[in-house]
Amino acid sequence: MVGTIQGGVGAHNTVVSANGHYVYLGGRNHNYLEAYGTTAGTIQSIGPLFGGVRPFTVNGSDTLAFTTATNLDGFQVSNITTGKVLFTVSLGHCAARICLHRSEPRGCCRQTRSTCT
Predict the structure, then answer these.
(1) Taking the domain 11-92, which CATH number applies?
(2) Which residue ranges of the chain lie beneath pLDDT 50?
(3) Segments making up each domain of the chain, as ranges
(4) Is 116:102 a contact under the CB 8 Å cutoff?
């Protein structure tokens, strides 16, 4: 199938779900992450998000989106099913690495150069 999907303004990232049922479209100048359902041909808007969508990812079950924004020193976690932002993690002026881990429901700010295990 060949066609056009209208996503947010200023295309930045596009991610296809592992099962191929969704295409996620992030726009730098758009405060929503768009989830296109490939079966139904519909778009679900997730947000509003903080200041446009920058790099993002989704979990393997297509239930959570993890997004970053240009002027947010942190990230947001959203429920893909409801389209609502669950919480925003702001790290303030942290110059350390940010890492996500299965056992951490929120981000961790590490002050060392060690890797997240």
Answers:
(1) 2.40.10.480
(2) 95-97, 104-105, 107, 109-117
(3) 11-92
(4) no
